[in-house]
Amino acid sequence: MIVTTTPTLETKKITEYLGIVTGETIIGANFIKDFFAGIRDIVGGRSSSYESVLREAKDSALKEMTERAQELGAHGIVAVDLDYETVGPNGGMLMVTASGTAVKF
């Protein structure tokens, strides 16, 4: 399935719009990762533990969105948008939402 942030595809003609599909993921960042990320922030550099959590959450949200599009019989998803937000007490959870328009070619 083609998944793109663009509203159209040059090589495909959209024949039917099936509606908006979404995928949501909420992942908790654990205390040990927070501790080491804090140290990394003090000494500089990138926090690979947080980057890993971000990738995992993004991949999960995109997978869920794609599964919903497949249930509709879509061939692709266009105009995909990813949103990231912290939620929960003290922002201890990361929420990633993927949304786009399911289409047929």
Overview of the structural elements:
With 105 residues, the protein is of the alpha+beta class. It contains two helices and four strands; from the N terminus they run E-E-H-H-E-E. The chain is elongated and about 45 Å long. This is UPF0145 protein J2Z56_000569. It holds the Pfam family YbjQ_1. Belongs to the UPF0145 family.
Write the layout of secondary structure elements.
Blueprint: E1 2-3, E2 16-28, H1 31-43, H2 48-71, E3 76-87, E4 93-104
Parallel strand pairs: 1-3
Antiparallel strand pairs: 2-4, 3-4
**Helical region count?**
2
Quaternary structure of the protein: single chain
Question: Poorly predicted ranges (pLDDT <50, ≥5 residues)?
Answer: none
Query: Separation of termini?
Result: 11 Å
- Helix-residue proportion: 25-40%
Spell out the helices and strands N to C: EEHHEE
Largest sheet: 4 strands, mixed
What proportion strand?
A: 35-45%
Q: What would the principal axes of the Cα set say about the shape?
A: elongated
DSSP summary, beta strand count: 4
The SS-based structural class is: alpha+beta
Radius of gyration: 17 Å
Overall pLDDT, averaged? 85
Strand order of the largest sheet: 1-3-4-2
InterPro entries: UPF0145_dom_sf, UPF0145_YbjQ-like
Pfam families: YbjQ_1
Family: Belongs to the UPF0145 family.
Protein name: UPF0145 protein J2Z56_000569
Describe, in short, the structure shown.
The chain is α+β, with helices and mostly antiparallel strands.
